[in-house]
From TrEMBL:
<feature type="binding site">
    <location>
        <position position="117"/>
    </location>
    <ligand>
        <name>ATP</name>
    </ligand>
</feature>
<feature type="binding site">
    <location>
        <position position="259"/>
    </location>
    <ligand>
        <name>L-citrulline</name>
    </ligand>
</feature>
<dbReference type="GO" id="GO:0005524">
    <property type="term" value="F:ATP binding"/>
</dbReference>
<dbReference type="GO" id="GO:0000050">
    <property type="term" value="P:urea cycle"/>
</dbReference>
<dbReference type="Pfam" id="PF00764">
    <property type="entry name" value="Arginosuc_synth"/>
</dbReference>
<dbReference type="GO" id="GO:0004055">
    <property type="term" value="F:argininosuccinate synthase activity"/>
</dbReference>
<dbReference type="InterPro" id="IPR048268">
    <property type="entry name" value="Arginosuc_syn_C"/>
</dbReference>
<keyword id="KW-0028">Amino-acid biosynthesis</keyword>
<dbReference type="GO" id="GO:0000053">
    <property type="term" value="P:argininosuccinate metabolic process"/>
</dbReference>
<keyword id="KW-0067">ATP-binding</keyword>
<feature type="binding site">
    <location>
        <position position="271"/>
    </location>
    <ligand>
        <name>L-citrulline</name>
    </ligand>
</feature>
<dbReference type="InterPro" id="IPR024074">
    <property type="entry name" value="AS_cat/multimer_dom_body"/>
</dbReference>
<dbReference type="InterPro" id="IPR001518">
    <property type="entry name" value="Arginosuc_synth"/>
</dbReference>
<dbReference type="InterPro" id="IPR018223">
    <property type="entry name" value="Arginosuc_synth_CS"/>
</dbReference>
<dbReference type="InterPro" id="IPR023434">
    <property type="entry name" value="Arginosuc_synth_type_1_subfam"/>
</dbReference>
<keyword id="KW-0963">Cytoplasm</keyword>
<feature type="binding site">
    <location>
        <position position="119"/>
    </location>
    <ligand>
        <name>L-aspartate</name>
    </ligand>
</feature>
Length: 405
């Protein structure tokens, strides 16, 4: 029986050429799998037909936008996931979603190998292969660009020689990856970290410096899940999509950073994630109102570790799974409304309300009606500072003994 390879297929030049390239290099039949996580672009049926025309023996397409939003973006919102305190894991979240479909297709078609189009320099090769190893440790992985030196020049020459139905237009100076949660732009002139981004690279966001009227939105959460915008019920996907439009129109969610890649190099990345940043900002503030102090303090460390695990391709790892349980438990009271003003590149919280609020007006007020017993504070401070006081007295004795009068 001829071996089969499942290929993560985008419909572009590189993965279209990879179908025939893999067949020639390995002698295997190729099954192309395209997964829609909200990246936009061509119709899925057009992509499927192109894969078949390029030599795939089977081609599957999956509309996974809702799945991606519910099972991958939502956990990131609950975790306030920002790698290096800035990046909302746009690309990192999509890879395990795609991996699940690749593994399912491999099982369905009896494939022994999964292929992807990543280079040997970035994080995505790790995310794909670590994910596949976790879900299907018996499957092999190959990457034509990395393993068979399938450069772009060679890809274009192969495409022209075989007459493949794919355009071979001049390469964009940028490497772009996008999905419903955001958009990542790198390479080209951005590789000089002194160069500032230009407006031409952005698609999800408008120039925040352009004067426009502010937009006010009320986001409703139930146990950490965004369920309504301005009182209108939404799915998680709809919440992200609608805030992409509204926050994007105000230039919110632009990020320009030098980040630490898993492979050990630093890379300059530009992101735009308007919906993601608006939702995470709102969720963080609702947690401030509803999550007890010690739990909130501990969760901030969990959030950082959770983000690092996802960035590093360990979505399916035991630690990530265990931290999911903590994050979900911590979100059980994160229910209520956050009012935000979207304007000038910023999402600013202006109001909070929740039936699960731990904010007590009568304890917080300095005016009439104050129920806080201020007389209890002196004794509390005496006990709270006692260990420091004793240590300080010891230090004074040491200084005195060492410097006799």
């Amino acid at each position: 029986m001829t071996e089969r390879v499942v290929l993560a297929y985008s419909g572009g030049l590189d993965t279209s050429v990879a179908i025939g390239w893999i067949a020639e290099e390995t002698g295997a039949e190729v099954i192309a799998v395209a997964v829609d996580v909200g990246q936009g672009g061509e119709d899925l049926d057009v992509i499927r037909k192109r894969a078949l025309a390029c030599g795939a023996v089977e081609a599957e397409v999956a509309d996974a936008k809702d799945e991606f939003a519910e099972e991958y973006c939502l956990p990131a919102i609950k975790a306030n996931a920002l790698y290096m305190d800035r990046y909302p894991l746009v690309s990192a979240l999509s890879r395990p979603a795609i991996v699940k479909h690749l593994v399912a297709a491999a099982r369905k078609h009896g494939a022994t190998t999964v292929a992807h189009g990543c280079t040997g320099k970035g994080n995505d090769q790790v995310r794909f292969e670590a994910g596949i190893a976790a879900l299907a440790p018996d499957l092999k992985c190959i990457a034509p660009v990395r393993d068979y030196a399938m450069t772009r020049d060679k890809a274009i020459a192969f495409c022209e020689a075989k007459g493949l139905p794919i355009a071979t237009t001049k390469k964009s100076p940028y490497s772009i990856d996008q999905n419903v949660f955001g958009r990542a732009i790198e390479t080209g002139f951005l590789e000089d970290i002194w160069n500032g981004p230009i407006e031409d690279i952005y698609e999800y966001t408008q120039n925040p410096a352009v004067a426009r009227e502010a937009d006010e939105v009320v986001i409703t959460f139930e146990e950490g899940v965004p369920v309504a915008l301005d009182g209108e019920p939404v799915t998680v996907l709809q919440a992200v999509q609608q805030l992409n439009e509204r926050a994007g129109a105000q230039g919110i969610g632009r990020i320009d950073m030098v980040e630490d890649r898993l492979v050990g190099i630093k890379s300059r990345e530009v992101y735009e994630a308007p919906g993601a940043m608006a939702l995470i900002t709102a969720h963080q503030e609702l947690e401030n109102v509803t999550v007890e102090r010690e739990l909130a303090r501990y969760k901030r460390g969990v959030e950082q570790r959770w983000s690092e695990l996802v960035y590093d391709g360990l979505w399916f790892s035991p630690l990530k799974h265990a931290l999911d349980g903590f994050v979900n438990e911590a979100n059980q009271y994160v229910t209520g409304d956050i009012r935000m003003t979207l304007h000038g590149g910023r999402a600013v919280v202006t109001g909070r309300r929740s039936e699960q609020s731990l904010y007590d007006f009568n304890l917080a007020t300095y005016d009439t009606g104050d129920t806080f017993d201020q007389s209890a504070a002196k004794g509390f401070i005496d006990i709270y500072s006692l260990s420091s006081k004793i240590a300080a007295q010891r230090q004074l004795r040491k200084q005195h003994d060492g410097n006799p009068a």
